[in-house]
């Protein structure tokens, strides 16, 4: 089988995989279970009883409910403190199901479905009346997503219903990329957390829609409302002809999530380009003996050996886990670093600015949001 388009040039490093040991730690909780046919059945019964189930996807972990059921969907909003006007994505397991819930209106949408689904994207399509609960999505266009993760697919297949699911975290916190992180957000308040490996992508799906291009009257263009693991470049490559793809991430009317705080941790997050700047900021930081971490690329670390020595003498922790040569790997570990920083009571987290191209655009979108005060 051909490699899915979104996986081209996205291999993780050995270090990323070695982090899978997390799985063991999470098994001590009774609501965290490894995937099995019995567990998929349990998930189905829970969803049918209007309860919630956390399931893994290739992007991050999702908090799922029956998307047709108002009451079940409401408990998602309540459990994760999510503002009610922020719509949920509907998860399906195979392409033919899409027509039951939404209408494909043009060839561009069809090509995206044909070539990129299943994968880390969410496509807004015209919603069919009386299908998805209005509480899940009160808008005319509903976000449809077909995850490519095998556990997510089997879960959706056995459940036999459309699953509304946001990220399985408390609304303003970083999205969870492993079962332990889900547990630290939701504890025993969700009856079942299906425990797979660490999420491959580590950042959420790219939310997109197809609209007329005002500049060229009859043509269509793709707008990416939330950048994610599937990039603008991937979309351009997907078509045999030239197509306009643009990021429109600044408009809260189009992207409801823009209205709210996201990806925040208790400590402060600061973006930096040069290590010298950190030295100044550290000296200015008012708290006594602050706990400081610097998340940076191996490249920057190698070029600044003297400065790194100074940081170490100041008891500042250096996390050289990134490399500009592998942005997929940076995305994979981003939220995990945030979560560990929060658990370690970090006062100040410095994050190196990565190039805002390809997956770097989605990463920096999250880092900038987290650095907002
Ligand atoms: O990777 C993902 O997308 C994960 C996994 C679980 O599938 N889900 C996820 O859901 O990140 P959530 O709710 O945390 O983020 C989805 C974002 C929302 O913030 C919402 O603003 C936007 O997508 N969205 C959903 N439906 C929309 C719609 N109909 N129109 C515009 N934006 C929508
Ligand atoms: Mg979310």
Question: Overview of this structure, please?
Answer:
- By secondary structure, the protein is of the alpha/beta class.
- 34% of the residues lie in helices and 19% in strands.
- The protein is built from 14 helices and 16 strands.
- It has helices spanning 14-18, 22-26, 37-48, 70-79, 98-101, 107-116, 150-159, 179-186, 232-238, 275-284, 298-303, 305-313, 327-343, 359-371; strands at 32-33, 53-55, 62-66, 90-91, 102-103, 121-127, 141-145, 163-164, 192-194, 206-212, 220-226, 244-247, 268-272, 292-297, 317-322, 348-352.
- Strands 1, 2, 3, 4, 5, 6, 7, 8, 9, 10, 11 and 12 form a twelve-stranded mixed sheet that branches. It has a four-stranded parallel sheet with strand order 13-16-14-15, sandwiched between helices.
- The longest helix has 17 residues, at 327-343.
- The N and C termini lie far apart (47 Å).
- The structure holds threonylcarbamoyladenylate and magnesium ion (MG).
């Amino acid at each position: 089988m051909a490699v899915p388009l979104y996986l081209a040039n996205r291999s993780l490093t050995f270090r990323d995989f070695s982090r899978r040991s997390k799985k063991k730690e999470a098994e001590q909780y009774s609501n965290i279970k490894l995937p099995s046919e019995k567990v998929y059945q349990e998930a189905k019964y829970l969803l049918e009883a209007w309860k919630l189930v956390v399931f893994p996807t290739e992007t991050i972990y999702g908090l799922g409910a029956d998307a047709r059921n108002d009451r079940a969907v409401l408990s998602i909003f309540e459990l994760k403190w999510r503002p009610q006007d922020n719509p949920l994505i509907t998860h399906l397991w195979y392409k033919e199901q899409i027509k039951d819930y939404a209408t494909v209106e043009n060839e561009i949408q069809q090509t995206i479905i044909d070539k990129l689904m299943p994968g880390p994207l969410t496509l807004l399509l015209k919603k069919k009346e009386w299908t998805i609960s209005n509480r899940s999505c009160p808008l005319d266009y509903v976000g449809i997503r077909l995850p490519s993760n095998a556990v997510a697919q089997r879960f959706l297949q056995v459940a036999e219903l459309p699953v509304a699911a946001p990220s399985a975290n408390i609304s303003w916190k970083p999205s969870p990329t492993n079962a332990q992180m889900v547990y630290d957000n939701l504890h025993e308040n969700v009856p079942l957390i299906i425990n797979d490996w660490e999420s491959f992508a580590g950042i959420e799906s790219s939310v997109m829609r197809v609209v007329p291009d005002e500049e060229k009257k009859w043509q269509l263009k793709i707008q990416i409302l939330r950048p994610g693991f599937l990039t603008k470049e991937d979309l351009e490559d997907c078509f045999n002809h030239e197509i306009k793809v643009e990021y429109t991430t600044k408009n809260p009317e189009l992207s409801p999530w823009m209205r709210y705080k996201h990806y925040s941790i208790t400590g402060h997050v600061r973006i930096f380009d040069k290590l010298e700047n950190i030295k100044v900021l550290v000296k200015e930081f008012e708290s006594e003996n602050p706990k400081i971490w610097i998340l940076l690329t191996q490249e920057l670390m190698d070029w600044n050996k003297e400065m790194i020595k100074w940081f170490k003498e100041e008891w500042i922790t250096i996390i050289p886990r990134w490399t500009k040569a592998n942005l997929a790997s940076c995305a994979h570990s981003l939220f995990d670093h945030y979560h560990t920083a929060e658990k370690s009571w970090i006062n100040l987290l410095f994050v190196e600015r990565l190039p805002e191209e390809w997956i770097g655009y989605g990463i920096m979108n999250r880092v900038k949001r987290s650095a907002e005060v």
